[in-house]
């Protein structure tokens, strides 16, 4: 893991897709925060690459606006100016070989102007996935992968491939000119503080790990819900759907951290060796049992808090007969000694009632019931790991209700990150950019993990595409997805948790 006091070596960060949405919303604010925290090297420059013909100053204005939109509190103008002065822009056609010669010259010039001893470069591909093959290839052709004068790293956004076959192809093409240790495949979920805290909760405490297995855990549930629709991303999303967009990457990586064996050390490979074993142990779903173990849905028109909400099929850029799922729920098993027989349930969706991501560990009930209230409360011991919002942890257990007899009441013990008033939760991109700058790939996806996740998902993609008898259920926007998803959790007295924005809320009390 990276040491937070590590200042990266001098380098130039090249952002392809510099005027795009991700750069505006995530990369620029994250880089500015790193500047404020003095985590950027003294000799450092950001070179934005885009198709628009704009000047360095236009790019600085554009980035200044992005910073204004990203922060609610007004930032120190002097710091903003200092940061913007490090930004440069180059117009380029990324499909054209010549552009890379111009790029190399521009980088050499920036190196000289900044008196950088080494020619260290990071290339961030914040572009449509269709360019993930061509940009690295042409960079290499222009020798911008050559490490004789300094390291060269490449950061690739998700999705890495469209399915297993295309992920293999993309990797084959990358391998021709880039070493695995030069490639950083970003999955921003791994950069979230609360996702990393899964490791700390599990491995810095002696009290959870002895229970963390099939002997004591009944099932594990992971929810990642969003209370908004596809917005202006239909061009991408309609080709992708919830399974590719959220499950194949973010949620399966989260499963990896929740289910992994303790690593031998906190070294990048030690951790990634363990998470990949989890993904490789996922029991394959055959096309036949996809129908019983998965649910897909698509939001339909509705009225939320008095406001009319479009059906997915009426969103801008979505075809009127789109079969793309905006909701996915899966049940699966991890076939290893720790988890044999423990079902895992994951679900994600757009236009659900609230924005929340959490994992719920449901412990088994006691082997014998001494108290009447235990009947029907088979899932009363729960550990809820809240990734966002109201980040924290909640433990549920039974306590005696004061008074005569032995009445049991389920109570909660909760920790909220915002109780630590002096602690700021950094954005995932801040952490991940810094890690790439210092060469720590722990929180980036290794290729074997990417393949293992695609391998697991592929039969679901195939069955959903080829088997028309697997329904695409409509669900009104603003609800918890298709009702039938409740039946995925088959056991008596067990159901999904219906979380709220606040960690302690559920279907019984919810201030959404
Ligand atoms: C992205 C998906 O990777 O993650 C989006 O493409 C999704 O569709 C987003 O909204 C969720 O990220 P977060 O950090 O807001 O949970």
Features:
512 residues; alpha/beta; Rossmann fold; Dihydrodipicolinate Reductase, domain 2; 2 domains; six-stranded parallel beta sheet; binds 6-O-phosphono-beta-D-glucopyranose
What does this entry show, briefly?
It is built from twelve helices and 17 strands. It has two domains: 11-157, NAD(P)-binding Rossmann-like Domain (Rossmann fold), CATH 3.40.50.720; 190-488, 2-Layer Sandwich (Dihydrodipicolinate Reductase, domain 2), CATH 3.30.360.10. It has helices spanning 21-36, 56-70, 77-84, 97-113, 134-141, 164-175, 193-203, 234-259, 268-280, 287-293, 428-438, 447-466; strands at residues 11-16, 44-50, 87-91, 121-125, 152-156, 183-185, 217-225, 294-300, 302-304, 307-309, 327-333, 343-349, 356-363, 382-388, 392-400, 408-416, 472-476.
Please render the helix and strand layout as text:
Elements: E1 11-16, H1 21-36, E2 44-50, H2 56-70, H3 77-84, E3 87-91, H4 97-113, E4 121-125, H5 134-141, E5 152-156, H6 164-175, E6 183-185, H7 193-203, E7 217-225, H8 234-259, H9 268-280, H10 287-293, E8 294-300, E9 302-304, E10 307-309, E11 327-333, E12 343-349, E13 356-363, E14 382-388, E15 392-400, E16 408-416, H11 428-438, H12 447-466, E17 472-476
Parallel strand pairs: 1-2, 1-4, 2-3, 4-5, 5-6, 7-12, 8-17
Antiparallel strand pairs: 7-13, 8-11, 9-10, 11-12, 13-14, 14-15, 15-16
Helix pairs in contact: 1-2, 1-11, 6-12, 8-9, 8-12, 9-12, 10-12
Residues 188, 226, 245, 357 line the site of 6-O-phosphono-beta-D-glucopyranose.
